[in-house]
Amino acid sequence: MTSLQKKVTSAIAAGALLLQVALPVLAQSTTLVITGNGAESDSDINVAQTTTTTVVQNNTANISNDVDADADTGNNDANYNTGGAVSISTGDAATGVAISNTANSNVAEVNGCCDADVEVEISENGYKSDNEANLKLNTATNVFQNNSANIKNDVDADSDTGDNDANYNTGGPVSIETGDADTTVLIANQANSNWAKVGDGSGGASVKLKIVGNLAESDNDINLLFDRSLTLTQDNYANIKNDVDADSDTGKNDANYNGGAVSIDTGDATVGVGIDNMANFNFADLDCGCILDVLAKVAGNGYKSDNEINAALLDSKLAFQSNEYLCGKYGYPYPSLFGLELDGYGGYHKKACNDVDADADTGNNDAEKNTSWSGDPSIETGDAATLVDIENTANSNVLVEGGGPAFPELPDFDFDFDLGFNWLLWWGLLSGNSS
Q1: Which single residue of 70, 91, 295, 354 has CA 20 to 30 Å from 101?
Q2: Is residue 284 within 8 Å of 321, Cβ to Cβ?
Q3: Signal sequence: where (predicted)?
Q4: Can you tell me the distance from the alpha carbon of 324 to that of 236, in angstroms, rounded to the nearest whole number?
Q5: Is the peptide bond before 173 cis (omega within 30 degrees of 0)?
Q6: What pLDDT score was predicted for residue 415?
Q7: What sign has the CA pseudo-torsion 212, 214, 216, 221?
Q8: Taking the CB of residue 262, how many other CB atoms lie within 10 A of it?
Q9: Whole-angstrom Cα distance, residue 198 to residue 25?
């Protein structure tokens, strides 16, 4: 992927959908204290806290562009003339088609991950006191990003200065001169980008559990369940089909059965097709921090005291990134058989993403059965050039856990494309205006 900037000169069709979510979640602090209670007291603290953050982003784009563009200065006839010079001179024919499709982008940022600072203290309680603190802290963060794009571009572009006839003329020179024929088709498809950042890397939770200074035969318990889970799912599906038929023709000129000097001079025929497909990019940065500074302390408690600390600290991460990039139509009878299509022989083959038929023609000119004492028949053709440039970039997954790049290297989903072609230069070269 280069850093050249592409700006499409004209966008015939464009679809763009952007969903962006930024969810700041502040850190929490939980402090539980059982202290200074008298003899044979019974003290309990029960805390159940559940925090759930769910982000769901779904995009579906169905884009179909059907373009038929023609430029024609040809199909001129000058036949059966007597007594003077016959001349056909055509101007230039130029056809330009630019299609830019941009669809489906998700951006989600969830900060904090609900990290909790927990402090529990049971201290200085009296003889035979019964003290218990129970905490259940559940934090769940779920991010789901899904994109589905079906893009089809069907382009038929023609430029024609040919198919001119100058036949059966008598008494003067016969001349056919055509201009240039230029056909340029530029297609850029961008689809399906997911960007997710969970956590700001600011650190994790601090857990302090203390049973200290309680008197004889006291019964002291701390039970802590700290359960943090993170689930990330990023799915992309892209079905892109480009069908381009581009032709430039200055040929197929006839100058036959004439009685004077005969000359056919054709211009240049140039066809340029540029196709750039980019689809299916996932980036995820998971940086919720760790559970840090865990302190569990049982100290200075009296005779026959019963002291117990139970702590379960659970931290789980699940990340799923998947991409599917298919091309064209599916084959019968199994419409989801990996993008395969029946080939006519009972088998299947993968359908091409880009089906391009590009032709440049200055030939097929006829100067036959002419009679002249003033010169030989002459046919001079210009240059014929066909340029096809196709670039496919698809299916990238990037997952980092802390310390990742601030800005992932994913395409900017706008019309200042950062892709492989210099479109303005291309357009200028093909149209003869490179300055």
Answers
A1: 70
A2: yes
A3: 1-27
A4: 6
A5: no
A6: 30
A7: negative
A8: 27
A9: 10
Count of alpha carbons within 13 angstroms of residue 323, beta-carbon side: 17
CA–CA separation, 309 vs 132, rounded Å?
10
- Bridge partners (DSSP) of residue 335 are none
* Residue with token string 């670039």: 391
Supply 250's token pair. Answer: 């200055």
Q: What is the pLDDT of residue 139?
A: 83
CA 123 to chain centre: 59
Per the CB < 8 A criterion, the answer to whether 262 and 168 are in contact is no
The residues, any chain, with a CB within 8 Å of residue 376's CB and separated by 6 or more, are: none
pLDDT at 399: 82
Q: Is the pTM of this model over 0.90?
A: no
Q: DSSP strand E in 328-383: where?
A: 340-342, 348-350, 354-361, 378-380
pLDDT given for residue 15 in this prediction = 30
- Collapsing DSSP to helix, strand or coil, 122 comes out as strand
401, two tokens: 């856990």
Q: Are 419 and 391 in contact (CB under 8 A)?
A: yes
Distances (CA, A) of 223 to 67, 76, 132, 135, 318: 69, 95, 8, 6, 27
User: Does residue 167 contact residue 264 with C-beta atoms inside 8 Å?
Assistant: no
pLDDT score at 294: 79
* Tokens coding 225: 């369940």
Angle formed at CA 191 by CA 246 and CA 143, multiple of 5 degrees: 170
H or E segment at 347? none
In 90-202, beta strands by DSSP E = 93-111, 116-123, 130-160, 174-177, 181-198
Helix (H) or strand (E) holding 279: strand 269-286
What would the two tokens of residue 294 be? Answer: 């865990």
Phi, psi of 390 (to 5 degrees): -125, 130
Burial (CB count within 10 angstroms: exposed 0-12, middle 13-18, buried 19+), residue 380? exposed
The residue type of 133 is A
Give which of 262, 269, 227 is closest to 140, Cα–Cα: 227
Residues of the chain falling short of pLDDT 70: 1-28, 112-116, 201-204, 289-292, 328-352, 373-374, 402-435
Two tokens at 242? 């480009």
Torsion region of 114: left, alpha or beta (phi above 0 gives left; psi -120 to 50 gives alpha): left
